Amino acid sequence: MSIRIGIFGYGNLGRGVEAAIRQNPDMTLAAVFTRRDPAALTIATAGVPVVAAADVAAWTDRIDVMILCGGSATDLPTQTPALAAHFNVIDSFDTHAKIPAHFAAVNAAAAASGKVGIISVGWDPGMFSLNRVYASAILPDGQDYTFWGKGVSQGHSDAIRRVEGVADGKQYTIPVEAALEAVRSGSEPTLTTREKHTRECFVVAEEGADRARIEAEIKSMPNYFADYDTTVHFITAEELRAEHSGIPHGGFVIRTGKTGLSGEHRHVIEYSLKLDSNPEFTASVLVAYARAAHRLAAAGERGCKTVLDIPPALLSAKSPEELRATML
Amino acid sequence: MSIRIGIFGYGNLGRGVEAAIRQNPDMTLAAVFTRRDPAALTIATAGVPVVAAADVAAWTDRIDVMILCGGSATDLPTQTPALAAHFNVIDSFDTHAKIPAHFAAVNAAAAASGKVGIISVGWDPGMFSLNRVYASAILPDGQDYTFWGKGVSQGHSDAIRRVEGVADGKQYTIPVEAALEAVRSGSEPTLTTREKHTRECFVVAEEGADRARIEAEIKSMPNYFADYDTTVHFITAEELRAEHSGIPHGGFVIRTGKTGLSGEHRHVIEYSLKLDSNPEFTASVLVAYARAAHRLAAAGERGCKTVLDIPPALLSAKSPEELRATML
After folding, report:
1. Which residues contact A114 (CB under 8 A, 6 or more apart)?
2. Which DSSP symbol is given to B96?
3. How many Å apart are CA B317 and CA A255, to the nearest integer?
4. Which of residues 204-263 of B touch A (CB under 8 A)?
5. What's the distance, Cα to Cα, between the start and end of chain A in Å?
6. Which of A34, A63, A114, B258 has the largest count of CB atoms under 10 Å?
7. Among B243, B241, B238, B221, which residue's Cα sits nearest to residue B230?
8. What is the ipTM score, two decimals?
9. pLDDT (tens digit, 9 = 90+) per residue, A111-125?
């Protein structure tokens, strides 16, 4: 029996989930749910119904796992608990500071409905979290470092576009190579915000706008840019479209630590991602965890979980026997 | 209550476990078991009993998890099932091809005794296996690559020492940088054995031995060296001791894959280890999984498991709430 997946929200992430389902022969896309007018939405998969979000509860018996593809700011805090009352759910809630509250809300809903919810699935939180936990459990006497990039930060790109005189813009977060090397050396350096990442902005200015003022305003923006070495490039709208329309991202999780009776041996554990498409990779992680949610629900589990609670074998389409024989 | 750990076998790995336990405040070394004369063995931890292996069954109520530190060739295939009749056990069984048979033997013993066994814990099998499974579940349309080194291969060093005229020797396995780069490019190259790794040998020749014959014999040795580009350096016993007495190792697990409706986006997932001490790092992984075994046993689980079956949170000394608040 194929695992029947529902997609709730059809933006970049929802389209990524739709594509990822095609790479997993044990899954089927059952329906896409949207808050827009379903008649106005064309999806990439022929024959799959597009349903109004308001009608989702009628699909309880036709969806094994619902993958939520909304945003963390306003969509997921209400949508995930609400949908966990009817479905096994997966989301990519990524506001780190609010994860405990979100967990509690989803857990209450899923425990009551007898469903499984897995929240904060993706790569950070997600695969990066896993690697932080594994590495710190193995090397308790050590230090964790997370670097992001090179990649597009949506939040910082939005901030650029709010500056007066900016028609469009894109921001790349770039890890500082010297900082990465210092971390890999095992010296456990203390690094400032400025030492870890630089920020590179590609800006399309409106005609006649004061470029010097725009550049100064971006570079001094608190929280977003003031604490970083920031570079601003003015380019044309055509250049932006041609060279900066992708959504790449990635990063590094590194832990270094010591072992031995007197800490005489050093070790470096490094995990890195280099992603052409941030939403498609996140979607691929969501789909793998949907398989786990389905299996956990079938085994009688209920309530909210995170990637830290899921046995790795449950993500794989292969059987435990096959995994032991071929992947261990 | 501290987790009471037993160490079964006191070689490099056993000493590594002893050191790792000191880095984990929730654990105590309860006893070391040896097949040697216990009176002749001095361990690094004062006040901890050294016990004859033959007397191990008397310790059932005083050990929460037994960590087996013997070899995969002859020790673990019999020891792990035998000890699983009395204890929760962890081993580092690393003969990949024989894992299914070993799993079956340990599972039968642990299921009957009501204990938990976790086998093939370490870094390969172990952390590398985890990364192969995670990455292939996330990117089904892709390719896995594992590289080892730079590091000392005990098996290859032993092979060198069996050559006539060789007094001592050490062998390093080295990944080929060009192969790593080709893999990271996402081109999914097909690589031969020779293209992936080189082998570097440091050899102490006996006085008067024919060095040319030794070098030729090493380089043409089937299975061990014939399929590789091998370099042989003759050095003195003093140089070997001064520069090659460590047991470093490491390696890389890389998966590249495509996503998107027509596979238009590429992704690279890379996990790497750089280890000053192979046995101490392996020991640190064993100790983290001992914590998981203790928790699983306390929760009523029984039978054999591998790293693929263990929820990551169980490895950490932190509570699930703390992990969600600080590490996710």
Report:
1. A302
2. G
3. 17
4. 259-261
5. 27
6. A63
7. B221
8. 0.97
9. 999 999 999 999 999
